[in-house]
Design brief:
Blueprint: E1 3-15, E2 26-31, E3 35-41, E4 50-63, E5 68-80, E6 83-87, E7 96-100, E8 103-119, E9 122-139, E10 146-147, E11 156-159, E12 166-169, E13 172-175, E14 182-184, E15 187-188, E16 194-196, E17 210-213, E18 219-229, E19 232-242, E20 245-248, H1 251-254, E21 300-302, E22 305-316, H2 319-322, E23 329-343, E24 368-369, E25 378-386
Parallel strand pairs: 20-24
Antiparallel strand pairs: 1-4, 2-3, 4-5, 5-8, 6-7, 8-9, 9-18, 10-11, 11-12, 12-17, 13-14, 15-16, 18-19, 19-22, 20-21, 22-23, 23-25
């Protein structure tokens, strides 16, 4: 052992991410039969900051003259007075009000390892990081178990005992082979009581909503390698994300059989027909006649992925050559980004989210894909010249 350090900390911080005048009752210009002013925001004079109390303990270490080094951290973050959009009675003329409500806990472990494997004429250094985080809503307002403002299209909710933004909706059970109807688990009887989790129904209105998955990853990982030999260098970075789902909210338009709205995804060619009954794609029926408007696990899939994020191959000319042309450094390189991705996500890219929702409860409505363009695969050629 060549280095050892133990550290710990505790602190209380505030989150002042409150937009201007968020506590005020506001009016804005509106044009209906005539022009005038109309209320645009409900006042909340009690609005205040979030508060986060965080405890951290960690160890920094090094072995073999720090050829192997790293860090291990454990932390607990407790946040109170969460800043959230809370649904209010429609008689107010609004859907939500910005309030302080509830408590959130983040608890996790982070690990970083650095190693110098070879440092002679051939060099190889590597670094790996791992982070696990358990995010959980501990409480909401008194007597409140869930905040659900998703309407009929979005499934992100704030629910006690679940991570923030968890997906909540119908559990898709596939297709009835007899008639091509879409089926859903957790069927209800005529009084609205749950028959059993395994019982199915073809009526989305007669099935109980359940938690379908997390919108936040529980585990993030990265691995970076640097190789060099006689002026040639190769950098390779691989990243991974695990433990979350992604909601393809565009599925109600592009994977809905006969809904006519948009061009359909290829999997709709496998829709149920009397001649082909072994499928999990319901029969195509006109105008969403056999769809649940997206609020089900039918349009939810794993967001786990491993991606070859960046690769850079470079060559730097030796000093005895570049001195003749009057420069201090001359380096040629080629970089590739987003070269390959291993994932089971049914959409284009598991690492994207709908940009138009960025200002619409961004801390809740995450991992939602709505025709979001995938990250581009790019190849960059370059020259570095030092004068």
């Amino acid at each position: 052992m060549s280095y050892l350090k133990v550290r710990t900390s505790y602190g209380l911080t505030g989150n002042a991410s409150i937009s201007n005048f968020a506590s005020r009752g506001l009016y804005g210009a509106r044009v209906y039969a005539g022009s005038g002013l109309a209320p645009t925001q409900i006042a909340n004079p009690d609005l205040t900051w979030e508060e986060t109390a965080q405890f951290d303990v960690g160890i920094d270490f090094g072995f073999f003259n720090n050829r192997l080094s790293g860090e291990i951290d454990y932390y607990v973050k407790n946040t109170s007075d969460l800043l959230l959009d809370v649904p209010v009675p429609s008689t107010t003329g609004f859907r939500t009000q910005f309030r302080n409500v509830g408590d959130l806990r983040n608890r996790g472990v982070e690990l970083l390892l650095n190693a110098t494997v070879f440092d002679d004429e051939f060099g190889w250094s590597t670094s790996a990081n791992f982070a696990y985080n358990d995010n959980k809503i501990v409480s909401l307002a008194a007597g409140q178990d869930i905040i659900d403002d998703g309407g009929s299209r979005y499934m992100n909710v704030v629910k006690v005992g679940e991570s923030i933004g968890a997906f909540y909706g119908l559990e898709y059970a596939g297709v009835d082979p007899e008639n091509g109807d879409g089926l859903y688990f957790n069927a209800l009887d005529e009084e609205g009581n749950l028959i059993s989790p395994e019982a199915t129904t073809n009526d989305p209105n007669m099935a109980q909503f359940v938690v379908l998955g997390d919108a936040l990853p529980t585990t993030l990982a990265g691995w970076n390698n640097k190789f060099n030999f006689k002026g040639i260098s190769l950098d390779v970075f691989v990243q991974g994300s695990f433990g979350k789902e992604v909601h393809n909210s565009a599925g109600v338009f592009q994977s809905c059989g006969g809904c006519w709205f948009d061009n359909q995804t290829r999997d709709q060619l496998d829709a149920w027909t009397p001649e082909s009954t072994d499928t999990d794609v319901p029969e195509a029926r006109f105008f969403w006649g056999n769809a649940d408007q997206g609020r089900s696990s039918r349009y939810l899939s794993s967001g786990n992925f491993v991606r070859l994020k960046t690769v850079t191959l470079a060559y730097e000319l030796p000093a005895n050559l570049i001195d003749r042309i009057g420069v201090n450094r001359l380096r040629f390189y080629i970089t590739g980004q987003n070269l390959a991705t291993i994932t089971n996500y049914a959409g284009w890219d598991p690492e994207v989210a709908a940009d138009f929702l960025a200002d619409d409860s961004p801390n809740i409505r995450t991992s939602v894909d709505f025709y979001t363009a995938p990250q581009p695969r790019t190849i960059i050629f370059g020259i570095n010249v030092g004068l």
